[in-house]
Amino acid sequence: MRLIVYFDLPVETSEDRRNYTKFRKYLQVHGFIMVQKSVYCKIAMNGAAVQTIKKDVISHRPPKGNVQMLTVTERQFQQIEIIVGEAQKEVLDTLDRFVVL
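^ thats the sequence. predicted structure below, dont judge the formating
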């Protein structure tokens, strides 16, 4: 499964920019990969893992702005069509299973 987090955060004041940077760095440190500028995704082994990740993201949400999450299966994620540009090299887009040791 994939958890996709997409957000639109204000960057008008220095505090807004600080909150934006803090949230983006939180996502990166916790294994999210940038798909587009404000779209990040993370792979999860099952629904229980997705729920845990969601709770963690919610606990680190910024005070203002718009943050949304979407859960899709690997098969659905693999069906993304690229109309312009190239696929991200960092994003795992295969149905092969992986094992974390």
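The CA atoms of residues 77 and 93 lie 7 Å apart.
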